[in-house]
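Help! Submission page says 'invalid entity' but I think these are all valid:
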Amino acid sequence: MGIVTTNFKVEGMSCGHCTASIEKAVGDLPGVLEVVASLEDKTATVVYEADRTDVAAIAATIIDQGFDVI
Amino acid sequence: MGIVTTNFKVEGMSCGHCTASIEKAVGDLPGVLEVVASLEDKTATVVYEADRTDVAAIAATIIDQGFDVI
């Protein structure tokens, strides 16, 4: 399935601590290679191995950090 | 000199991560007994032993976390 990049639309980030919490939590998921959360764009861009994790698991992790994925 | 409570007016907190970062950093100072940062009130209320730390050291620590003390 290879390496996939998904751009999540995230509501509720208000500061650099918020982006850092998403980058840390999603970055710790197995199969995630890179995470960039943007306060300005209200996004989290995640590069991951599609056979090790998926959109649902990543979205759940973002939500678990207290944000909304829309 | 005893135990003193000082209420700092803090600008720049936008979320619970911000209040947590202040509570952790100030709470780690020697002589600090209690810290409560309030997003709504834009304050950090700190209880400390006045012979072990002071307003300047606490304010510097809050500023060091990326906030303004006014």
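Support: the input was valid. A stray whitespace character was the problem, and the output above is from the cleaned input. The mean pLDDT of chain B is 96.
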